[in-house]
Amino acid sequence: MTIKNIFFDFDGVIAESVSAKTDAFREMYLPYGEGIADKVIDYHLKNGGVSRYDKFKHWEKTFFGKEISEERVQELAQQFSKLVLEKVITSEQVPGANAFIKKYAGTLNFWIITGTPTTEIEIIAKERGLTKYFIGIHGSPEKKRYWTEYLIKSHNLKREETLFLGDATTDQDAAMFSRLHFALRKNDENRDIFKDYKGMSFNSFSELEGILNKTKSINIDKSENI
């Protein structure tokens, strides 16, 4: 395969920010008891790429029997954003992520597709100094399947030349839906979820670069290491 386009998820792929969001959800639901907080976190980890809006709707209906209004969803989302935004901005990078992005942004086409709201991920990318390396940065309320198809069609991308880097089932689902290559970024939070996964995977971007080099998927300058 030859890769010319890469779609990046953000949390757990570019930044080690999954735990920051896990902690924020726990803090929001802990007043309702440890049992509910534990169930919230279990659902969050198993549905990592699902937007916070859909998660809040699910939890409010499941735990409290409420069909909540969009106004209430927005209130919860704003409360969550206040808890998590700075933590995500200052979280550690996934090993080698920044170097890989900067090294190949001139020869490959990069986009971010995430479950984080678009307005928020734009702020995060700007604060982390990453905006200029991506053609587009896209998040919720649109789902990842929407964005993969939108970008493929609007930029006339070839599916066989496009790779989705993700760490959640929604990332894998979007890649499969749009018939893209997929590489799983492995971490502690998704180990059990992907225990039977046999496809391309990586822990660090130096490992991913090695895989892509070995398969001759991209042109590698071997004098530069991430």
Describe the structure using short key phrases.
226 residues, alpha/beta, Rossmann fold, six-stranded parallel β-sheet, 47% helix, 13% strand, globular
Topology of this protein?
Blueprint: E1 5-8, H1 18-29, H2 34-46, H3 52-64, H4 70-89, H5 97-104, E2 109-117, H6 118-127, E3 136-140, H7 144-154, E4 162-166, H8 169-177, E5 181-185, E6 201-202, H9 205-214
Parallel strand pairs: 1-2, 1-4, 2-3, 4-5, 5-6
Catalytic activity: 2-phosphoglycolate + H2O = glycolate + phosphate
GO biological process, one term: DNA repair
Keywords: Hydrolase
Description:
The protein folds into two domains: 5-17 and 92-214, HAD superfamily/HAD-like (Rossmann fold), CATH 3.40.50.1000; 18-89. The protein has a six-stranded parallel beta sheet. The longest helix has 20 residues, at 70-89. It contains nine helices and six strands. With 226 residues, it is of the alpha/beta class. It has helices at residues 18-29, 34-46, 52-64, 70-89, 97-104, 118-127, 144-154, 169-177, 205-214; strands at 5-8, 109-117, 136-140, 162-166, 181-185, 201-202. It starts with a strand and ends in a 12-residue tail after the last helix. Helices cover 47% and strands 13% of the residues. Helix 1 runs antiparallel to helix 2 (34-46), helix 1 crosses helix 4 (70-89) and helix 3 crosses helix 4 (70-89).
